Amino acid sequence: MQNTILKLSDELPLTCSRAGNCCHGNKVLLNPWELACLAYEKKISASEFRNSYTEWCGVRLLFNGAVGYNGKQACAQYAEGTGCSIHIARPLACRLFPLGRQIQNGETVYMHQGGTFPCLEGCNEVLNLPYCSVTEYLVGQQTERWEVAQNTYLELVQQLADIAFELLLDSGLAASGDKKTLQQWRVMANETPEQLAERMGEKWLDLLTIPNLQPDILRPQLFCEQHIILLQEELQATFGNAQTMKELQEAAIQVMALALLLAIAVGAEPRSLISHWIDIAKSNGAQE
After folding, report:
1. Which one of 46, 88, 138, 249 is least enclosed by Cβ atoms within 10 Å?
2. What is the pLDDT of residue 104?
């Protein structure tokens, strides 16, 4: 489906009618900070929230509530007549809806799906509510801190990929004629989140999706930076002494699995990423 690219000054019928239709049948991805904030707001542990209210091993909200709009199930956090039960901590995808965002050439671009404003399909009453600019909507939805967290985790995806590159290219592994690593990277790009999680193991899944950190809605950058440090320390402790070709292979594959699962959590497309990364690796002497 085509996207309609928006300017920040564009005026749109963005005042919500509170019908709750968008809380049914949607797909809401979660980065680790968002999951931690949702668990904190619900007054349960991040592990409990992940196991009870998410799918895809913690990177997507579960929509298993009552059937409502268009015969679709509601988000597990939606309460009929009340709305979102964790509204203050709602994820970026919910704050932006019906808008989306992408990073293009270092710039944030906002858009909506299709040529027609999405809300008109189920909530055409919004045409009678106040219009506002994209900028005004973002400010009203308080997206800034959530965008900071999303951007930081996007950067972490690349940092993890860079570590996998180092293990492949700077260790002598690629020079040895290794082909398995790139072949496995390509296989992983087509794996489900559950398959990636099984590949990386419970310890790494927990460290990636539910780090033992206290979330702070006011300071997402601090949480993300601490999370990055935890991952870097564990990667060094686990793979810092890898020497044999087999050990280096396993390390490069494991780190790339972490990058891909996190990429899914922040809405990136694993196949496109892997295709790009394999091209880079090949241009630096790796073989497939």
Report:
1. 88
2. 87
